[in-house]
Design brief:
Strand content: under 5%
Structural class: mainly alpha
Distance between the termini: 5 Å
Number of helices: 20
Amino acid sequence: MSRRRLALIVFVVVEATGAAMLSASLVGAVYQEWRDATLIAVAASVTVIVGELGRRFLRGQGELSTREAFAAVGISWLAMTAIGTLPFLVTGALSNLTDAFFEASAGFSTTASSIIDPSDLDHAVLWWRSLTQWIGAAGIIFLSVAALPVFGIGRAHQFGRERGGQPPDPIKHRTRHLSERLAVLYLGFTALEALLLVFSDMDAFEAITHSFATMSTGGFGTRAESLAAFNPYAQWVAVAFMLIAGVSFALHLRELRKPTAYIRSAELRLYGLIVGGAALLLVWGRWSSGVGEALREGVFNAVSIVTTTGFTNSDIGAWAPGLQIVLVVLMFTGGMAGSATGSINTYRLSVLANSSRTGLRRLIHPLGVFRSRMGGAPVDDAVVHSVQAFFLFYMLAFVVGTLLLGVIQSGLGAGETFLTAVSGAASALGNIGPGLAAVGPSETYAAVPAAGKWVLSSLMIVGRLGIFPVILLFTRELWRR
């Protein structure tokens, strides 16, 4: 383990985060919010200088090893989140580190959890909130599709082979070319959505920031009512692009080369089946509210939860208990591997289901030879074991998070404590945002005690990075020379 190479990566991330922060200062200047623009510019400039000095001092340290790539992902994300607190603190939008770290964690992890009423914020801070989500999703897409597969990490966690069956590319020099194509695709989808949203009742600023939040499956908005504050056209546009963001970006790229890639993708069919089934359940449950409203609310919230975006267009906390159970279950699904979504993802769910079926067949036929399959193609045993390990740690994190939140929130009523703890942990770990009861969509997380905010921040980061990069930071083997 070369700590100098690792430090170099962290300083590069710090400098890039500071450079992105300058855009928030520019937005503040455009809207003549001179105080916020100046304070954010100072914070961004100091961050860029620190990052540049560190990068120049440590340059030329060679290529990262696999272990260093693991460590770089976890530490860089923590550094990026810490730097992301500065615009909230220097402008006074948030008054303490706990709240600022929670908001920044929600941003870069693309979780729609917030302790702020966005209608109270200036344009510069609103821009930064949405931009953190857009950057966070871009980083995850880049890591999962282009960068970490080069190191052969796909066997150990979500990055690499767990991308819908696409094998890692062993040619390192192609990483930059692939990254450029991903950037163009991601920017293109974002720009197209912003253009379509301009024709709704959003202004240009709201159209852009909501496009950031949609394509990142982040869910931060500019109003406390989320997308319920806008007309049905805006909501249906968001549905379309949430679905797009939930599809593997590797598959999007393959579709550009082979127009039949979507049709042949078994994981895309499973993704569509999950979204369609969830939408039917919610529409049926909301049928008494009228056909048009039931369709809009059911489809919108099914897509929002499955894709872990967290937008809402109604108060789901007031829905029938049976529908709330459905929503909590959907928090454990997610979109396709290699997409912007969080949670478990459809590829892992398919591998788990097929490996369970294979295990049952082996019990019935002890001498038989069986292989787990995905879309007819065999899945390596190493990938199956990786997925099983991920699921075990994911559920362990959910249980521990639920227990901790239950103890911290024990001052609430019994039923409210249970719903708050379960839905809050599932929502944070799955990078969704709104939960139920005290953390429902009509509420914020401001009332959660400080200890609970740190628990939720940890769950958001762990869930976004796919469990293993964070866990491995605390293992002795990773840091051995």
